[in-house]
Amino acid sequence: MQALMFYQISLMTECLITYFTAIRLITTMYALMCYLMAFLSECLMTYCAIIRAITTVYALMCYKMAILTECLITYCTAIRAITTMYALMFFQSALCTECLIT
Length: 102
Description:
Helix content is 98%, strand content 0%. The protein is mainly alpha-helical. The radius of gyration is 43 Å and the shape is rod-shaped.
């Protein structure tokens, strides 16, 4: 009977240790799941922020291309305006010379 009591006490001790280990395991698993959820939330926020950053960079590149195109158009227009101004100055000089001769 004492041998059976010893085995029963051993079994109860083993059950108690297993119970405490299971509680610690469930607590640890819950903590790890919380960390996983925090990590996934951070990944999602980073993903959304990167999408917004890429969209902003794309918009800025479009604006830069528009500015460069505008600068090129202005440059070409300025060259044409200077050419026209030189032609008009030539005609004005010719007219003044004609008037002076007349």
